[in-house]
Each structure stands twice: as C-alpha cells, then as structure tokens.
Design a protein that fits this description.
Chain lengths: ~300, ~450
C-alpha cells in the first residue's frame, strides 16, 4: 500500500509540473482565443535566456529580471508583428501564425545563446525527504514539493491579479467578449500585450523548474506535449482547471505506467494521458472547468 | 583596330579558358566529403560537437600535411536537423558534388541510415555508421556499402556485462544478480534487448527491461519500478534529455549512480552537466575517450585553432566526448582515403574506390601511435566479411567535473555476437533477395 501512495503522490507532484506549462496556454487562450502553439518554445527561450545571462556573470535575481524583461519584449513584439495584423482573422489563422512563431523563437534563442546543453541550479535538491522515507518508506522529492509550492503561489498571484486589479478585470472582460470589451473602451491590443507578457513570465517559471530538473536544452520545448492532455481535461479557459487537470493527468499516468504498463511492454505514460483526455472529451467536451459553449440558433 | 579587338577577345577567351582549366585542375585535386550535419534542433549539442571535431581534423590534415597524398579535403555541410526526410534530401543534394561526387555518407542518425540504405547501394556510395545504425550491417557480405565500424550496439552490450562482471568480482558472480535495462522506447533503445537476454541466460542474471517513452523527460514511473525491483545494476540506454532526467531520477530514488552503466549515447558532458551532482559516479561505455591531452587533439589546437580556423565556437568543448568522437570520424575517413590512394593513386576517389579503402582499413596500435591517437580509440581492422572491426569498448566515469577512464579496451563477446549478426543479415538477405558476396573472390 505504501508503494501505491508513493506512486500516487509522485504522480500528483509531477502533474503540478505539467500545470506550469498548461497555465501559459490558458492565459493566452482565455484572453485572445488563440491556442498558442509557441508556449513550449517560450519555456525553452525563457530558461535559455536566464542561464545565458547567468553565464555572463549576472547574479541570479538580476538574471531573472532580465529574462522576464526579454519575455515581455517578446510578448510586445508578438502582439505588434504577429497578432495585430491578423485581428479579425479566423482562429485557425492565428493558430498557424503561432506555429511559425514557434520556429522563430526556437531559432532565435539558439542563435543568440547557442545550442549547448546547460545545467541549472536553483539550490533545491531533487532527493527524497529523509525522515519521511525512513518513517514511511515513501519517497517524496524536496524539489517536487518546492515545485508544488511555487505553483500554488503562482496560481494565487494570478487569481488575485485577475480578480482585484483593473487590468485583471479588463482581461476578464476581453476574455468574455472582445467586441463588447472594445465597445466600452478597453484597449484590446494593450490587453493582449499584457497577457503575452504574463504568459512569458509563466513560461519563465516553468522553464526554471523544468530546466533545473532536466537541464536547459531544446527538449524543454517538448514539455508542451505534456500540457496538452492537461488542457483538454481541465479546460482551455480555466486556471484552476490547469492545476486540477495536471493533478489528474500526473497521477493517472504514473499509476497506469506502474500497474498496467508491464502488460503492454511499458512506456505507456506518453500516450495514456491523451487516451484519457480523449475519453473525457466524449463526456465533457469543454473540459472540467471550461466554459460551456452555447450558440443561439 | 580590328586586329587589336580580335587580340583582346582572344586574350579574354584564353584567360577565361585558363581560369576554367585551373578551376578544373584545382577541383581535380580535391576529395569532396558531404557532411549531413545537425546544428539546430533537439540534437544540436551532439551534432555540433561531432561534426565540429570531424571538420577540425580534416582542417588539420589540410593545414599540416597539405591534404591526403597532396589531395586537399573539401567538404560541405547540409543541415538535417536529425530529420529523416531532410537527411534524404541532403543525401541527394550532396551526392553529385565534388570532382567524383560524394565519396562517403555518414549521417549520424539511425533513422537517416535506414532511409538511405538502398540508395547508397544503388549510387555506390559507402555509408559509415560509427556507433549507430543497423548492427547486422556488420556482415559485409550482405551489406557491402554499409560500415557500422569500430563496435556495434550488440558488441557494446556484451562489454557492459563484462564490465559489470569485473566489478562484481568475475562473470561467474553475476549468477542471481538483477540488471535493469532502462531504454529509450524506439528501435535504437530496443537494439540491446535480444543480446542482453542471451547474456542473461549465459551468465544467470535476471534481466528487467523498462521502456521510457520519447523524449524521456519524465521517468518517475520507471524509477519507482526500479525502486520496487531493487536491481543490482541499471543499464541506461538513453538519448538526449532522457539521460540527465534518468540521472536526476536515480538520485531522487536513492539508486547509486556508481551502479549505473550508460550506452555511449548517454556518456557525454551534455548528459552529465545538466544533472549536476546527480551524475557523479555514473559510468558509460565509449569507443572514444574524452580529454584534450592526446597528441591528435593538441595538434588540432596548435595547427588549426592557433590560426583561428577552428570550427568550434565554444573552444572549451574541444576534447569533449562528442568532439573527440568527431575526430574519430575524421581519422577513419582520412585513413580510408589513404588506404584507397595506395591502390588507386593519389587522386580524388570515387565512392567505389573509397569503399575499397574502408574494406581494407587497418589502423593498428602502431598506426594509432603515429596518428597521436593511442588510447584515444581502439585499433581497427575491416575486411570484406567484417565491417565492424574491433568491437572494443572503454569505460569512463564522471567525477563531477570530467570523465575519467576506468577500464582498458574491453573485447566484445564475439562468439555470441557474430553468429547473431550473420543470422540477422541472412534473414535480411532472404527478405530482400540479396545474394551475399563471396569474399574470397573480392580483391
């Protein structure tokens, strides 16, 4: 039974890691209806920029600020060069534009900082909490707990931002109805810039957490693949959905791999979450917390 | 006036003709090598290191020796991004370049190797796959155009068992032990399974294969299984991000890295540095070693980098595992040219002539010393039947900062591996309706 709980807890904590990436998708989709295919590339670019500054001798906090600034500039440029000319175009056009953006960001980041694989140290050891291990024989990683803490803080900050600030309220208005928001004088382009900047910040946090675990390398772009089933399950427009979806996906994929994987040759944790998300779509197409889409006929 | 015009026209024409002739002459004294490299994308770190080392070695030969037998080496890179379709495109683009066309194709990708396997035979261009590709292509009778040289995955797997045996106090001590095999869930990753299962039967250990889905950036389930299975050793058969992730996960699970043995694609600085302290004690196989203290690397630094002609932007990578692996590619290519020139003359060689060079390659201990590569790579003798060569592997351990050699060259279990190669190649020959060559009739 101890082993079952170890798998479950490990899965839940892994799920939080997926939620980091899913959050970036949600923010942009919520405010602009754009599925940002470039979110994985943004995670990679943010982490690479951070370690790039560190390699130049910039201290941790300043490197963090500078990397955030770069992500803000990237967000503003994306709005100005990619999104603004495509206003009123069908969503699929915007989606295709973000696919192009993915390659630009990946190429640009590697062009500026190089393709070398780098280590990233946040000062938190990825090892089990010893006393817990000795008392219960359940290994829970200090780093995973740290990641969960950061996720909780991030969600709280985002919730406060959306709920209690003027910009947050404007964001929600834009998310509800672009036309109505424009008609009452909310500047759509400013809102988009802010959303892309916030998504850049979330990408930076995700990049630091994933980069500290696996190294800062191109494979960070693949983290987006882990976020997709989370989004399908949690809903594309819900921040709590991204977290709950992450927890469900993380825990079930781990349990499936450990208890079912052996029967089918293993390695099922790459596709099992997608099967689950697809099955879920049949029951609740808008996801757990997604907004139900109702059309007047 | 008319005469002056005719004269000047003639002079221009003569000049142009002279220029064309000189250009043709210059080209006729050049050996072209097409490089299907990958410097961007997911595997850029490996590609930039290996192709960088390879180019630097060829630059050394040009700068120091004036080429091979007076024939300058020329090359052109074509970016594949480790993508099969792009690899095939590069193959087609490069094959007609140079005076005699591309004389050798080395894609550094098992996927691209499979994609052009039939094409190289049709176009008569040898394909060299050092440390990757089809293992059974080591049977030169069935695969005359493919050279999986130095050592194959199967040979390597048997040396891993030998190495583990040496750490346990002898191969007989493996009886009753448990070895987990954590592999990239792909054709590459599965390559080691069959031979390790046979080794398990032979030596009496329990073999536990565990698949990791691509790209391998999440392995918690597999490491929890390892924690449950409690193996004595873990063989890591990974690639890219899967490697540092495995090392970190091992630390998280409390599994000793001293008991982890990696495949040669898990054993570069790019695999250990991102995992930080979690990598300390991790040991990997290799058909080349790391380090800049070998005369061949020093010569590159002295001759190529001092003239600012080096290929590596980050000079600290000179002497790294991938870089040195590129130098091994360079050595083998150049030595094959030298061997072929001894038979066909000091001129640019065709693909067929280069194949002869590869098939008669003999880099023995004496030659390795002359090349400044003693201990750097194993000796190598290729024949018509055997396109593998030595099958030898060395082991290196990460001390937290750099790789340290911890074994001598270990011979593969050829008695087990060679029959497996011949059996698999014969099956392929039957499927493809290939009549194996009679090597006794080859020159």
């Amino acid at each position: 039974m101890g082993f079952f709980f170890e798998v479950l807890i490990g899965g839940l904590l892994s799920g939080v890691m997926y939620s980091f990436v899913a959050l970036g998708f949600v923010l942009i989709y919520k405010a602009s209806g754009v599925f940002n295919f470039a979110q994985g590339a943004m995670v990679f670019a943010a982490a690479l920029t951070f370690v790039g500054f560190q390699e130049l001798g910039v201290p941790f906090w300043l490197a963090l600020l500078l990397a955030f600034a770069v992500m803000v500039v990237l967000g503003i440029l994306t709005e100005r060069i990619v999104l603004r000319p495509l206003v009123n175009q069908p969503p699929i056009t915007l989606f295709m534009a973000t696919i192009g953006l993915t390659y630009v960001i990946e190429g640009l980041a590697q062009g500026v900082w190089g393709a070398n694989v780098r280590g990233l140290e946040l000062g938190i050891q990825d090892e089990p909490i010893q006393w817990l291990l000795e008392a219960t024989d359940i290994g829970v990683s200090k780093f995973d707990l740290f990641g969960a803490g950061v996720a909780a803080l991030l969600v709280t900050l985002l919730a406060l931002f959306f709920q209690y600030t003027r910009i947050g309220r404007a964001l929600r208005a834009v998310a509800d109805d672009h036309q109505a928001a424009l008609s009452i004088g909310i500047p759509l382009q400013n809102i988009w810039r802010i959303v892309w900047a916030v998504a850049g910040f979330v990408a930076l946090v995700a990049g630091l957490i994933w980069g500290a675990r696996n190294g800062v390398q191109f494979a960070l772009t693949f983290t987006a693949l882990k976020a997709l089933p989370v989004l399908i399950l949690g809903g594309f427009t819900s921040i709590p959905g991204a977290i709950v979806g992450g927890l469900i996906i993380g825990s079930t994929e781990k349990l499936a791999e450990v208890y079912l994987g052996g029967y089918v040759g293993g390695g099922i944790d790459s596709w099992f979450p997608y099967v689950m998300a697809l099955a879920f779509l049949l029951i609740r197409p808008e996801g757990l917390f997604g907004e139900k889409h109702i059309d007047r006929v | 006036m008319k005469m002056r015009k005719t004269l000047s026209t003639s002079l221009i024409a003569a000049g142009l003709l002279g220029g064309v002739a000189a250009d043709a002459l210059a080209q006729s004294a050049e050996q072209f090598i097409g490089l299907p490299s990958y410097r961007v994308g997911a595997y850029a770190a490996g590609g930039s290191g290996i192709y960088g080392g390879w180019i630097d070695y060829m630059a050394l030969i040009n700068e120091r020796d004036g080429g091979v037998g007076g024939v300058k080496l020329t090359w052109e890179e074509c970016e594949t991004e480790y993508n099969n379709a792009r690899g095939v495109e590069c193959y087609e683009r490069l094959k007609k370049k140079g005076a005699t066309g591309n004389s050798v194709f080395q894609p550094l990708s098992t996927g691209i190797t499979y994609s052009v396997l039939d094409k190289v035979a049709q176009d008569k261009i040898p394909m060299v796959t050092i440390g990757y590709g089809r293992t059974d292509a080591a049977d030169g009778r069935v695969f005359p155009w493919v050279f999986p040289m130095i050592t194959t995955y199967w040979s390597q797997a048997t040396t891993m068992v030998k190495y583990i045996g040496s750490k346990e106090g002898g191969l007989d001590k493996l009886k009753g032990k448990k070895i987990a095999y954590l592999y990239h869930d792909s054709a590459y990753g599965k390559e080691g399974i069959a031979v390790l299962e046979k080794q398990a039967q032979k030596h009496g250990f329990t073999f536990v294969p565990l698949a990791v889905a691509h790209p391998g950036n999440e392995q918690q389930s597999q490491w929890l299984k390892i924690r449950q299975e409690k193996p004595d050793w873990v063989i890591l058969w990974g690639w890219g991000v899967m490697n540092p992730t495995a090392l970190k996960a091992a630390a998280k699970t409390g599994f000793s890295r001293e008991k982890m043995i990696g495949v040669w694609w898990s054993g570069a600085e790019e695999d250990t540095i991102p995992a930080g302290d979690a990598s300390k004690g991790f040991t990997t196989a290799g058909f080349n070693v790391a380090g800049a203290n070998y005369p061949v690397i020093k010569a590159i630094q002295d001759v190529v980098y001092k003239k600012n002609k080096g290929n590596m932007e980050d000079k600290s990578r000179v002497g790294s595992v991938y870089y040195n692996r590129g130098v091994v590619h360079g050595i083998i290519t150049v030595e094959a040219i030298r061997t072929a020139q001894a038979k066909f003359g000091k001129k640019p060689l065709s693909g067929e002539e280069m194949r002869w060079g590869f098939e008669h390659l003999n880099i023995d201990a004496k030659r390795l010393k002359e090349l400044g590569a003693e201990g750097f790579m194993p000796d190598l003798k290729i024949t018509c039947e055997d396109h593998e060569g030595s099958g030898k592997v060395k082991y290196q351990q990460w001390d937290g900062k750099q790789w340290k050699v911890v074994s001598d060259w270990i011979d593969a279990d050829r008695e087990m591996v060679r029959p497996m190669i011949e059996e698999s190649a014969a099956k392929y020959a039957k499927e493809k309706n290939i009549t194996p060559r009679d090597c006794s009739k080859e020159g």
